[in-house]
Amino acid sequence: LYLKTLLAKHPQIKVINFRDAIFNMFPEWFDKFIDMYTKEIGLPCTGNIRFDILTEETVKKMKAAGFYTIDMGLESGDQEMRFKYLRRYQTDEMIIRCSNWFHKYGIAQLTYNIIGLPHEDIHKALKTIKLNARIKSDRVIPNIFYPYEGTALYDLSKEAGFIPEGDFTQRRVPLIQPQFPEEQVLFIEAYFGWFVRCYRHAFAMPAWLGKPYERYLDWCVTGKHVPYKFLVALHDRYAHVRNKLKDFLVNRMPKLYMKLRMLKHKKRADKNAK
Question: Rounded distance, CA 110 to CA 73, Å?
């Protein structure tokens, strides 16, 4: 009823974006909703879903309903981190299986990831990169962990001595962890998407070529002599220039900016449709 009323008042709406973080929390309700949406609305749509309560039949229905992309909280590629600290009881196999369904039915995937979790280190963060590569995520978003007061992870971080005294809200990396120093956290965040693409290439190669390339990438991420601080500073400079250019286009040449954005998304949609 709400969607019908909204569309009646705003017929120019062409896409529906469901931002409920637990959109498919109740599978029976979700399946009924998809059937109703298909029959009565039928507009292209996106939404947030969970890996652990999906079936292939539901994914098939989502495609028929008009879902063209979905957002998923992968959070950590280390299964122990997901189980022990995040209370997300999703195995690697479960995540890979669900992602295969989305590829099968042509629905693009965006994954949210957390870097710098309490008790994480660069090797565990690398598992997050690799899992994103294995599921061939279409877009990845890495976020640095922030300890919100009142949460179990805040208490855990406080007890472990990872939260510094004073105002830590101005820090780029809120937690101070000896096993995962700030420059490594910032390095993983900065180059996350680039390494995901590299590992995707490695996993797609024949084993005799892909395995050595994977070991080389592992060394590039976790090697003893990786210049993390220099690489972070380099990326910061690049990001500064990129953001300045974006601001210029948005403020001075908005039509060109929108055309470039539409072109980018069209290419991504065409790629997913293949």
Answer: 9
- Tens digits of residue pLDDT in 152-165: 999 999 999 999 98
Residue among 57, 153, 144 at smallest CA distance from 105 = 57
Beginning with the edge strand found earlier in the chain, give each strand of the sheet holding 45-49 in spatial order: 16-18, 45-49, 67-75, 108-115, 139-144
Sequence-distant (6+) residues with CB within 8 A of 59 are 98, 101, 102, 104, 105, 107
Largest CA-CA distance found in the chain, in angstroms, rounded: 61
Q: Which two three-digit tokens encode residue 170?
A: 């101005």
Contact 115, 192 (CB under 8 A): yes
Q: pLDDT by residue (tens digit) across 15-29?
A: 899 988 778 888 889
Compute the radius of gyration of the chain from its Cα atoms: 21
* Cα separation, 72 vs 50, whole angstroms: 6
